[in-house]
Amino acid sequence: xxxxxxxxxxxxxxxxxxxxxxxxxxxxxxxxxxxxxxxxxxxxxxxxxxxxxxxxxxxxxxxxxxxxxxxxxxxxxxxxxxxxxxxxxxxxxxxxxxxxxxxxxxxxxxxxxxxxxxxxxxxxxxxxxxxxxxxxxxxxxxxxxxxxxxxxxxxxxxxxxxxxxxxxxxxxxxxxxxxxxxxxxxxxxxxxxxxxxxxxxxxxxxxxxxxxxxxxxxxxxxxxxxxxxxxxxxxxxxxxxxxxxxxxxxxxxxxxxxxxxxxxxxxxxxxxxxxxxxxxxxxxxxxxxxxxxxxxxxxxxxxxxxxxxxxxxxxxxxxxxxxxxxxxxxxxxxxxxxx
Length: 339
Ligand SMILES: CCC(=O)SCCNC(=O)CCNC(=O)[C@H](O)C(C)(C)COP(=O)(O)OP(=O)(O)OC[C@H]1O[C@@H](n2cnc3c(N)ncnc32)[C@H](O)[C@@H]1OP(=O)(O)O
Ligand SMILES: O=CC(=O)O
Ligand SMILES: [Mg+2]
Known about the structure:
By secondary structure, the protein is of the alpha/beta class. The chain folds into two domains: about 1-30 and about 285-339, no CATH class; about 35-285, TIM Barrel (Alpha-Beta Barrel). About 50% of the residues lie in helices and about 15% in strands. It has 15 helices and ten strands. The strands form two sheets. An eight-stranded parallel barrel has the order 1-2-3-4-5-6-7-8, surrounded by five helices. Helix 3 links the parallel strand 1 and strand 2 (about 60-65). One of its GO terms (molecular function) is malate synthase activity.
């Protein structure tokens, strides 16, 4: 299997290479890197699905309060998610996922206040709070305000809890650079949850622009490519669209591999049967892991001789290539620790 090959490739790293990689911890914080190849939604209203979380191997599990939950079940979902997050975070070392998040309702829905009021009754914070339909940077101030009022300043400003946001409208898409910069500044200036990943809400985006979904996905090409470029401009992870045809595993594989080639970091999934296909598609190949490991090592040697650019296997290498190689090494290191 592709992921296994890559993990084996990583295990061949020598102690010297590992030490070399750690010299670049200042460039990218290796310890805090969270793989998000597959981000699985679990509706908070479904207790049977919530009970499966400890054994789910998706990189990121999203306890869902938004569109996966009927309006008539929001209250029940909030109560079940509060109990689940306390139970799961108490035994967090037993979880198979890297990140347990909660997706609240959007600011524009008018439901976020009730979500946060209820969630703040939990003793534990999740690893990440997830906010959908962020259309403007002003909305982030409203998110900060509602969390600070209900959780208290200390709990939301002195924590490792991360922020993940969804871009799902034409307005959000056009304003992405301002939205992402504001979210990062909010963390820098106030200590509020740090933005770590951005998710493309393609179904809501299609509804917003009036596009019809097609088998070849042409209607989303521009948006997906702009989305990746904006995320990567701010060194943020970019999570690709949901694939809703639950029985079409070939189609899921094709779109996942395409997303990986285009620069996405991972993909949203809605069913456990989609997890492994997506994780494999977003795993670097064994050759790529070997290339990355050797490149990082070569970079370190050249840098110690005062050379920022050099030749490596016939290619010119400088800092951007080092960053790409570090992304690969960080991903494989975390996945290797899990398996
Ligand atoms: C597109 C825009 C978005 O906003 S996406 C995010 C919002 N949507 C969601 O949260 C939906 C998430 N997915 C689901 O609710 C389910 O997968 C849906 C699509 C309803 C299908 O469920 P169901 O009919 O039970 O499927 P199934 O019979 O094939 O299930 C087999 C076993 O797997 C389980 N399962 C299913 N989905 C999940 C899931 N997301 N998380 C955890 N477990 C899941 C089922 O409970 C079932 O378990 P068992 O075999 O009965 O023990
Ligand atoms: O929230 C996800 C979407 O596709 O919409
Ligand atoms: Mg959506």
